[in-house]
Each structure stands twice: as C-alpha cells, then as structure tokens.
Amino acid sequence: MRKEMICIGCPMGCYLAVDYVGKTIRDVNGNRCKVGLEYAEKEISNPERTLTTTVKVKNGNLPLVSVRTNKPISKNKIFDTMDFLAKIEVEAPIKIGESIVQNIFNTGVNIVATKNILKNKS
Amino acid sequence: MSEIKSRDADLVVIGAGPAGLAAAISAKKNGVQDLFVIERNDWLGGILPQCIHDGFGIELLQEQLTGPEYAQRYIDELRKLEISCMLSSMVLEITPEKKVFVASPAGLFCFNAKAIILAMGCRERTRGQICIPGTRPAGVYTAGVTQNLINLKNVIVGKDVVILGSGDIGLIMARRLTLEGAKVHAVVEILPHTNGLPRNIQQCLIDYDIPLLLSHTVIEIHGQNRVDSVTISPVDENLKPIKGKEQRITCDTLLLSVGLIPENDLSKKCGVKLSSVTGGAVVNETLETSVPGVFACGNALHVHDVVDFVTLEAERAGKSAAEYILGKPRKMERIRVEAGNGIRYVLPQRILRCTDLELSIRVACPGENVTIGFFDGKKLVKKKKFRKVHPARMIKIMLGKSETVAIKALKVEVLGK
C-alpha cells in the first residue's frame, strides 16, 4: 500500500510517500529528517495529534482557559475529549502548566492549562 | 483639558506582541536602561493569547508551544528584567524628532525618546478590501476576529461555515470550528496553491475531511439579516470567475482569511518610508527605517509566517536600537538590494557592504529545485539551491562579509532552470 501525507513535525512540511503493509512501514520517501520517519510510522500504526482547545472558567478574569494535551493523543479520541472538556468548568485562579484533567480516558494523557487565569476581583 | 506630562526616555517600544516583547528584552540586555513598552490592550503578548494551537517555538526553542505558552516565556523575562510597560495605552503620534504622544489611563504623556522601535503588528484584510459583491448580512467575519471570539470570549460564530482564503489563520480556524461542532463546508482559495503551511493542510483540513477548493473564489454573498449562502466559482489563469460554473453553498457564516496588512499609520505620519510590496518600512541591515533612530520589526515590518522569526528579528532591532542609543559609530553608505525575477521581496532593502547579514526572502510562486542567485550587476556573487520553495515560507539566507566586499548593488533572483 502507498499513502501520501504531509509531515507536521515542523513548518517545513515535507510531502511524504509511505509504502507499507498492514501496520509495517516498507519505505518512506520525501522526508528530510528522522521526525518525518517517526511521523510516518505513527500515521500508519496509531495516528496521534496534540489537541488544543479551551475549558470554561469559574470566577476568572477570562471566561475560558486555553488547554492542551501534554502529549499527543490518539486521533480517534479527539472528539470524545472535546465532548468531555465541553462539560467541565474549572475554578480560577489557574496556573500555566497546571493539570486540568489527569489521564483522560485512561490514555495516560493529561489536559494542562496553557495560560495563567487570575481570580476575578469582583 | 488635562496637561501633557513630558518625560525623557532612551527607548520607546510601540506594541507588546511577540515583536515588542523580544525587542524590549534585547534592548535591555544590550545596555538600554530607560525604556518603555506601550501597549493599547490590557494584556501582554499581542495576538498570541488567542492563538491556542501549538507549533510555536520549533525553530527557536526546539519545542512545540501554544501561543499563550510562547508569550508567557517572554512576559516572564520582561518582568524579570523589570522593563516598564504601559497597558491600555495608545500611541497617538510619533514625530521624526522621536517624540511619542501617548494616551493612557494615567493621562496624556509625551516621551522624548532617543530611539523608537515600531512593533505594532498587522491587521486583517476585510470584505471591503477584496470587494465581494452581494448583500451585507451578519455572519461575515475575518478569521482572526473569529479566533478571538471562540478562544477568548466563548462565542461561537456559526454552524455552517465557508472559509475564503487558505492562509494559516483560515486553516487553523477550519479545524477549530470543526472541533467546536460547526461544519466547515469548504476552504476556497483563488490561487492555484495555498498560502498556508503544508503541515496545516494536513492537520487542519485533511485530518477532518474539509474540502480545499483551489482556483476558486466567492463571487457573491446572499442573505438579508444573516448570511444564508454564498456563490463560489472557479477562476481562470487571470483569476477571473469562469461563467456558467457557479455553485451555491448554503451556510450561515463566511470567514475571510485573505491576507494581513502591516500596521503603519503611526509610521507614515512620522515620515517613515514604506515599501509598496511589504506594506512595512524600508529598512537597512540594522532594521533602521528612513527616519534615523526609528527601527521596525515583526509583522509591522513585513508579515511573517512563524513567530520564531518575529522574535529573532525583534531581537536584532532591540540590539540595533541599543547601539544607536549608546552612540556606537554609525556607517552611512548603503547599497540597494533589489528583488528580481521570481522574487516577491527581499528585506532589508539597504545593506552595508562588508558586513555579515541576514536576508529575508519571499519567492513569488511555489517551485521545486529552485536556485536563487545573488548578483552584483551581471556578476553572480552567490547562489543557493532549494529543494522546495513556497511564497508562504520565508527564506533566510546569511550573506558573509567576503561576499559583499566590493559589490555596488545586490539583486536577488530565481535562476532559470
């Protein structure tokens, strides 16, 4: 099988042509570094993405805190994660890097805040 | 009428986005003591807090950070260096004598600065600037405004969306809207190639099966109170719609991601010479504009594709401003740098002979195995081959002292195959 994809490892964006059988890579063409190779392997076996979104904040200086997965999460868990995060609310203050959700869906991935939220003075 | 408070300052940095922050930090580290950063918003970091996606910092910090995380690194450093920032403060005017008039919550100020760094960023092109015919209903947004509403204010702009323009913000918003439950029916691009980074085509469009229609544009907006549909059409090689091929897409929202314009109203009034190609100031290799002591960097100078390059450029502007303020001897004689065949622009536009310098280059169209040549008249001084070039990907080239020793002018162009 042959699949074409664009490496998302850096702004260069190498166009990769990946030959594979089942979940095993036979050959990767077009990558300029090993990031492309690792990406191609992941894309064939278990594609993952870093998910970034927002979570509602209670009593904060902003209504939302931006969050990310602390490491890439399986692509097929992205919409489940979005649904889960749409239902929760966190209390201000929140510190950048703080875990909002631990080990979401037993994936070993945490959802962490990517900005500081102050407590609303009012 | 309140009185204008006057104050001397070594340096005033206008704007506290990524460029302003890095410029101020660099100036302070290079010996400038008395400096102020003026910011019209009530936060630091400019646009970064709303850019919640990751991918920032790969080139510079070798980490994939989100926008707010990237901003925080520089905000922390600014605080550590105890650099004064005036928030919610608007620069009203700057003069060639480097007076900076500021309206702030504490009143009106006039800084008598020794140097100024222009770091005002850029703004989005709007519907008016690309003249889309049709009615004028609600539901037409620029991509950046949408990003602000969704990521900072918890407001979703619509459910059925068409995006015009395939710049990075448009692509990022296609994914963001999809994640938030909207249906993005198409990203429509008038050019035969996208203006976004290739990785964003993958992770924002292909990942979510969002169609990308190249060589297409929106030719009419429909709807009375709210957008109810748009008509799109393929275009010919002159970018004119092809009659009889129109197609109507039902939607409630049209997002525009149709380019950015460097913000230079202040620069103009101060007499800073602007480039009609970049929309930003014409600068020399120190990033000094045509007004001595006024420097420019970041998206106010030219629109960048990655923030890392903004930071690096701003650090150079900060260092140059410091050298100017501290009275480092100045060399005046400069040679012109010209963009030739296949090149959209080269920055800086003026350089000092016999210095190590960095050129930022944008090609006019995408290509593979392209060689870029550097000429002094007819003489080839240097050439460099690229496996892939793209207008959306800025090229950085170092030019060594020895390569510019005796040249009279520098022209950069794409060589014939």
Global outline of chain B: globular
The structural domain count of chain B equals 3
**Helical stretch tally of chain B:** 9
Integer count of domains of chain A: 2
Label the overall shape of chain A: elongated
CATH topology of the largest domain in chain B: FAD/NAD(P)-binding domain
Main sheet: strand order of chain A: 8-5-6-10-9
What is the radius of gyration of chain B?
22 Å
How would you describe the oligomerization state of the chains in this entry? heterodimer
Q: Quick one: biggest sheet of chain A?
A: 5 strands, mixed
**What percent of the residues of chain B sit in helical stretches (DSSP H or I)?**
10-25%
Q: Unreliable stretches of chain B, pLDDT < 50, 5 or more residues?
A: none
Write down the secondary-structure element order of chain A. Answer: EEEHEEEEHEEE
Supply the helix-strand structural class of chain B.
alpha/beta
Could you tell me the mean pLDDT of chain A?
94
CATH superfamily of the largest domain in chain B: FAD/NAD(P)-binding domain
The name of the CATH architecture of the largest domain in chain B is 3-Layer(bba) Sandwich
Name of the CATH class of the largest domain in chain B? Alpha Beta
> What CATH architecture of the largest domain in chain A would you give?
Roll
